Each structure stands twice: as C-alpha cells, then as structure tokens.
TrEMBL record:
Protein name per Swiss-Prot or TrEMBL: Uncharacterized protein
Region (Disordered): 190-221
Domain of life of the organism encoding this protein: Eukaryota
Length: 221
C-alpha cells in the first residue's frame, strides 16, 4: 500500500499549454507596411502571367510576405489553470518573485512577494467590479461569456455529416430550370402521328365539327 501511485493528476499536468501567435498592429508597423506597399511595382505581377488565378496568388503571397516582414509577431502561452483576472503585469511580478526566491535575498523576496500579493488583490477587485457593471448594465452576452470562461465551458460546434450531399441537392434544386440553349433545333419535339381513316365520317361527328355562324353585332340606337 505504501508504493501505490495515486491515479489523480493535476489538471495543469493533464492538458498541454496552448501557444497562440498574434501580430502587434502598432502605428509604426502600419506605416512601415503602407510604405512597403506604396513602393511596390505592381505591373511586374501583371506582366508575369496572363492567368487571373496565378496573378491573385502572387499578389496575395507578396502581401503576406510584407506583413510578416513589417509587423512584429508575439507569442502567448495559455495554461489550463489561467484565471481571467491574471494579467500580464501579474505574470511579470510573479516572475520577479521567483527570481528573488532563487537569489536567496530575503529582503528582496519579501518586497516582491508583497507587491505580487497586492497586485493580485487589486486585479481580483477590478474583475469583480467589471462583472458587477455588466450585471447592472443588463449585458447578458458579456455575463454569459464570463460564466463560460469561469467554468471553462466549451460548447461543441455543430457539424453536419452530409455537407456535400446537402450542397449537391441544393445546387440541383436551384438549377432545375436551367438548360443549355443551342438553337431551335436542340429542343426535342414529340412526333405527331396522323391517323387516316378510310371510313366516311358519321353524321353525328360531322355535326359536332360543323362551323357555328357568327353572332351579329347589335345595332346602335
């Protein structure tokens, strides 16, 4: 019983951290990208190919290359136990506290620990006031977003299993009246069959097909 390993593991160890990359669109980066696009000779792409698809792909790839070169990219690591009120400033203060603990400086560690604890209390208070403001403003969307973030609820995205078949059926329904028109000869005509009768017509049938005399118009008074 002493050497048994517990089956419980921390949630932080079960889930890997999520690494996200995003671009910092500062004013300097925007001006640098705008200057790079302004000095570009776009006629080079037009003269290189006659295909619209190749021209579009070349221009799009060049714009993406200029964006990657001019706009800086930042990386953020999100752990599974991150709290919504834990900001980047708190991460920096916690890093300073850990460095002070590793340096074995008691005075520096005490000061950094006090700053970190005070910043945590302030961050929790600000986040609580933000939730109260959302509730008082009847902003239900923000409230439910905060509840999902606190409870870590991630709804499953509905996905249809017959996407292709449904798209084909919808396409056939919309194009049911369309047909290729090549000319009057392309329209199929049903053959007209004339039956010639050798016997003379009967009086009843002859009277049925007899012409009716027109009704005279009334004379004006």
């Amino acid at each position: 019983m002493v050497h048994l390993i517990p089956s419980y593991r921390h949630k932080l160890k079960l889930c890997k951290p999520v690494v996200r990359k995003f671009k910092k669109w500062t004013s300097e980066a925007r001006e640098k990208l705008q200057a790079c696009l302004d000095c570009t000779d776009w006629d080079v792409f037009k003269s290189a190919t006659n295909s619209l698809d190749e021209y579009t792909e070349a221009v799009t790839s060049y714009i993406s290359f200029c964006e990657d070169s001019c706009v800086p990219t930042s990386t953020r690591v999100s752990f599974n136990n991150d709290k919504p009120w834990f900001t980047a400033e708190l991460r920096q203060l916690r890093r300073q506290k850990d460095q002070a603990f590793e340096s074995e400086d008691k005075v520096l560690y005490k000061e950094s620990k006090y700053r970190f604890s005070k910043a945590v209390r302030d961050a929790k208070r600000l986040y609580f006031e933000k939730l109260q403001q959302q509730l008082s403003a009847n902003d239900s969307a923000s409230v439910w977003r905060g509840v999902r973030q606190i409870t870590n609820y991630k709804p499953k995205t509905p996905h249809s299993m017959n996407d292709l078949r449904l798209a084909d059926e919808f396409n056939d329904y919309c194009c049911r009246f369309e047909c290729q028109w090549d000319g009057p000869d392309s329209i199929p005509h049903s053959p007209i069959i004339l039956h010639q009768s050798t016997s003379p017509p009967s009086p009843s049938s002859a009277g049925a097909h007899a012409s009716v005399p027109p009704i005279p118009a009334p004379h004006p008074r």
